[in-house]
């Protein structure tokens, strides 16, 4: 009887005074994040004054500050920082307000975050710091800003790829120039042994290739399988890049670990337009791979009659 009376009194109190305080706090914290996301600074101020936790995070550990950054709400970012928001809080994927800002391309927000103590070297789960992210997205203004603030262009992510390699992959020559001016290592290699030049050639980014060659990149650098930038360009059918590399002195007869040359790669992948170009630069059609095959043998195996005819002309 006494237990039943106690339960009745608790229920009555709940009806009279409302839900528990912790529930109200949870709701206000959620409202704070939503207000920050839409840039409603008046609501942000009221919620903080009413006791909302400035650093309260959602299930992904994303805070109001991060949401304001993601939505380019500069004034809201400044307000939250002024009210004590943790500039270096991390999400479950190890993202920070600065990595979000670098991805979104708002140089004013990145400047403010850095001024308030954002760590330039914090990395996401993939190993990307703000510089890597900005370089990958081709955000030259932010790359320049981060470099001047002390970001390190020589560090790599979990795959060993530096900011320059990411810029090379995505084809951002202006970013490449900024990174080279900041003494980025043009011969750095990822876990596959690829350099920025090899990566750019494989993706067909001629302007990046030209920039790297102009700055002295090793044109015949080899990845772990022994393939050069020229072999990668030939295999992907990037004719103009292959011509660039050949004109700059790339070895047309280099053989990878399997004995494959750029000519064999072009034949194998059916990029026949490269055959005459390579042979005009003294590519040797008589070379054999580790299986004892010449480029003509490979062409016959692939039923590439056009290649067989082109190779027979030499």
CATH architecture of the domain at 17-119: Alpha Horseshoe
| SS-derived structural category | mainly alpha
Helix content: 55-70%
Shape summary: elongated
Low-confidence stretches: 1-23
> Number of DSSP helices?
19
CATH class of the domain at 17-119 equals Mainly Alpha
Written overview of the protein:
The chain has 314 residues and is an all-alpha fold. Among the domains are: 103 residues, Alpha Horseshoe (Serine Threonine Protein Phosphatase 5, Tetratricopeptide repeat); 96 residues, Alpha Horseshoe (Serine Threonine Protein Phosphatase 5, Tetratricopeptide repeat). Helix content is 55%, strand content 0%. It is built from 19 helices and no strands. Helix 6 runs antiparallel to helix 7. The chain starts with a helix and ends with a helix. The relative contact order is 0.05.
Brief descriptors of the model:
314 residues; mainly alpha; Serine Threonine Protein Phosphatase 5, Tetratricopeptide repeat; 19 helices; 0% strand; elongated; disordered N terminus
């Amino acid at each position: 009887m006494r237990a039943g009376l106690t339960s009745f009194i608790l229920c009555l109190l709940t009806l009279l005074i409302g839900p528990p305080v912790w529930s109200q706090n949870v709701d206000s914290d959620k409202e704070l994040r939503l207000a920050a996301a839409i840039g409603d600074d008046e609501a942000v101020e009221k919620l903080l004054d009413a006791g909302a936790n400035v650093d309260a995070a959602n299930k992904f550990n994303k805070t109001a500050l991060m949401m304001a950054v993601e939505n380019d709400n500069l004034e809201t970012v400044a307000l939250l920082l002024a009210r004590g928001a943790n500039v270096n809080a991390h999400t479950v994927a190890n993202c920070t307000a600065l990595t979000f800002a670098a991805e979104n391309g708002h140089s004013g927000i990145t400047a403010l975050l850095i001024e308030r103590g954002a760590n330039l070297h914090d990395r996401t789960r993939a190993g990307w710091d703000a510089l890597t992210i900005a370089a990958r997205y081709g955000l030259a203004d932010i790359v320049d800003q981060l470099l001047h603030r002390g970001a390190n262009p020589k560090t790599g992510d979990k795959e060993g790829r530096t900011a320059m390699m990411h810029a090379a992959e995505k084809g951002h020559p202006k970013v490449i120039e900024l990174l080279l001016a900041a003494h980025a290592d043009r011969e750095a290699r990822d876990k596959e042994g690829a350099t920025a030049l090899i990566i750019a050639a494989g993706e067909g980014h001629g302007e990046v290739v030209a920039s790297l060659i102009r700055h002295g990149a090793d044109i015949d650098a080899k990845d772990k399988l022994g393939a050069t930038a020229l072999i990668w360009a030939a295999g992907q059918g990037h004719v103009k890049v292959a011509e660039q590399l050949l004109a700059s002195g790339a070895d047309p007869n280099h053989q990878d670990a399997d004995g494959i040359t750029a000519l064999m790669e072009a034949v194998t992948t059916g990029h026949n337009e490269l055959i005459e170009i390579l042979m005009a630069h003294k590519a040797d059609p008589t070379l054999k791979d580790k299986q004892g095959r010449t480029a003509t043998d490979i062409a016959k195996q692939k039923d590439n009659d056009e290649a067989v005819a082109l190779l027979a002309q030499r």
